[in-house]
Amino acid sequence: MSSATSTLKQSRVSRGAALARLALRIGGRYLARSPRLLFASVERRGELRHDLALRSADEVAEELGAMKGVLMKLGQMASYIYEDMPLTFRLSMSRLQQKAPPMTGALAAGVIADELGGPPEHVFSEWDPLPFAAASIGQVHRAITRDGRAVAVKVQYPGIARSITSDLRNVGLLRRIVGAAFPGLDTRSLVDELGDRLNEEVDYFREADSQELFARFYDGHPFIRVPHVVRELSTARVLTSELVSGATFEELQTWDQHEKDLAAETIHRFVFRSLYRLHAFNGDPHPGNYLFHRGGRVSFLDFGLTKLFTDDDLAPLVDAVRFLVFEKDYEAFREALERAGFLKAGAPVPTETVVDRFGQFYGTVLQDAPMTITPAYASAIVRRFFDARGPLAPYSDVPKAYVIMQRINLGLYAVLGSLNATANWRRIAEEIWPFRNGPPSTPLGEAEADWLASRTPATV
Q1: What residue segments make up the domains of the chain, in order of their start?
Q2: pLDDT tens per residue across span 346-370
């Protein structure tokens, strides 16, 4: 399959057929190789399985990347969330974070002409026809505006909305494909949630508003940057923003541990300050949406899946933290979860079980001490989230208002775990929790406190 695709596979039949071919290739290869596995030595058996997994994962990455939409988004998420996935699958799926197969330059230029009234070389003073990033909904090109500003121009794939609809109709087959590629991963909730959120993501007007909300809030921040939108060059299918540069997540992982810890602290602060102070969540936390700079400075990109919360939405979550972490009132903690809809009221299970099940999601803030978030810890959180066999499974759910929040939490743990990030997460959280407003606990916290002091009350 060519790395450049001129059109998306849009119909249910064509996209379903592609999924079926993928399933047959993976299943058929296992069947064909199984006799050799039976008679191979233990060492050779491991080599064969490794080769088998890698080849199948490469095929899945290629197929998902070319098909875009729900399929590619699921592959991206699996690459960083599901730690129990075999390493070979994780490596292959990680290609989808930043290096997805792009559409042709001519097709992208056609979208620019349709949306901005002329070919890109007329709309911009300079235009790079080769995208530097390609994702599930669109790809991004560098350009220089007529007034000399360097910008990133996200161009939506033609027909992506129809493709998403086709994917959702193939959801049963999609789950079987993912189950074959990633043994043990329960993808039902993940796939269902993706469909709803991706239907919102195709609206670039909505994304522009969300990005500007974050950009204005974090203006002048010492280590968090969100690029501003260039409104006059943005439409429903083209989103133009300030161009930012920085190291990729892959490059960050080659830096020393201190730099990784600083970057992790910034990501953590961004997620929870945005939630508790801005009442907004950036719902797509995969590593391809971060650019890193030394000293903990991070640029945040892609706000297509932003969720806004009301005071009423957040009230039971704030109560749950307060009752569990500070007051140790476990019955009140349970009641807060029931009020939010995570737990059915009157469920015939002891409160100790509720605390054990849900308390794990607060593990980083239960102790006032430094803690390293490891890949194993992040994986345990994901397994607990997808556990459909525990005693609370019949009585627990993720309410619609919080689905995207749970996705953020899983993504955050996965990112911090892959960095083996260490911090006193409790002290950092106390700076941000509205019922604590604790003093700065780190050098980054001190810099943020100075920034906050310079802001008017209405902006913080």
Answers
A1: 12-98+168-199, 307-459
A2: 999 999 999 998 998 899 999 999 9
